[in-house]
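I am writing to request your help with a piece of structural work I have in hand. I am sending you one protein, given as its amino acid sequence and as whole-number tokens for its backbone shapes. Kindly check, if you would, that the fold set down in the tokens agrees with what the sequence suggests. You will find the record immediately after this paragraph:
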Amino acid sequence: MRKFLILLLIVLTTGCMPEEQEQQQGTRLKVDDVVGNFQVTDIITGKYSFNTETWFGQGSNEAVLFYFFMSGCPDCEVQNPAVINLWNDYVLPSLENTDPDAQRYYLVCIARGDASHSQAQARNYWQELADQQGLALTDLPPLYYDANRAIFNNFAYSGVPRFYAVAPDGIIRWEASTEGTPLSASQLFASLQAAHR
């Protein structure tokens, strides 16, 4: 019985960590760090590309929230509806605002991949999420895929769901892992607003 309780405690406290044991946990990049250079293209339509080198700085007016998740992660499944609401209720209206002085926000959803989480699985997961929410796939934010955790490993050692709010100059202003403690769309938007200041 004691071995069972210890095993249960380990499973419950590790969140959605990969199967292999990692020596370090948590985030690599912290508040006030600069986001490194990378580029991703969305895997749903192929229309959207996100390149940190051209996005941040040089007069950018958009704070960005990076959302790392993994298909099949129970904590991510709980967090995802708020991410969809953030996109539809806060991010899209800011992007559609025609006032040149208005603050704008962007959401970059990155499915963390590895040998057991393929790009096709991430796409199917996003489609199932749309179906559960009664939305078209195009009503969800663009979905980016991080094969073999190359991008994620620059941000963190382990643990999803994980967020980073980044100011228009490319500096991280807020980061959080929401394993077991999901945030609402309004809480996520507040982090984006704070990143814009």
